[in-house]
Amino acid sequence: MYLLPTNFGPLNAKVEVLAVALVLFALVLLCVTRLLPRINRVLDERADRTEGALERAGAIRAAASDENAAAQAVLAEARRDAAHIRQAAREEGTALIAAAREDGLRERDALLADGQARIAAQRAAAEAELRLTVPDLASELASRIVGERIPSPTPSA
Question: Which of 55, 77, 75 shows the shortest CA–CA distance to 67?
């Protein structure tokens, strides 16, 4: 018995061949009908997961973008605050330098005035001492030149 006769065609179909073909078709159909819903379900779950992951990724990107914008705003505010602090420190430093310069100038002027007063006092003391000793020195010098003792004149007061 042959399963496939040599003169097989659509018009010369034999019942045994059609029965075998029908059984095989039923088995294939049964397999496909049982597997196809599972395959479709797996594909649907995969699509849902993929789309859900994409949506979650989009939400995470949006949240990250919002946080980045907030961080940039905080950084900009911090930079502005730092600039204000630097400017205030610069102004305070300038004021402190000016105050220190004024104090230094006052101290210099005081030291100069004190030094000039000391010099004037020492000059006056030196002049007074010289006025007392000049007549004695002059008489001693004249005595050496003349060769005789010359009395020193008494200073007139």
Answer: 75
Return the C-alpha torsion angle 4, 10, 12, 13, nearest 10.
Answer: 60
Instruction: State pLDDT tens for residues 77-119.
Output: 999 999 999 999 999 999 999 999 999 999 999 999 999 999 9
- Kindly tell me the burial class for residue 48, based on how many C-beta atoms sit within 10 Å of its own C-beta (0-12, 13-18, 19 or more): exposed
Q: Are 5 and 17 in contact (CB under 8 A)?
A: yes
Structure-block tokens of residue 154? 């008494």
Instruction: Supply the pTM of this predicted model.
Output: 0.43
CA 100, distance to chain mean position in Å, is 31
> How far is Cα 75 from Cα 78, in angstroms, rounded to an integer?
5
Q: Which long-range contacts (CB under 8 A, 24 or more apart) does 136-141 make?
A: none
Q: How far apart are CA 14 and CA 22, in angstroms?
A: 12
Phi, psi of 73 (to 5 degrees): -65, -40
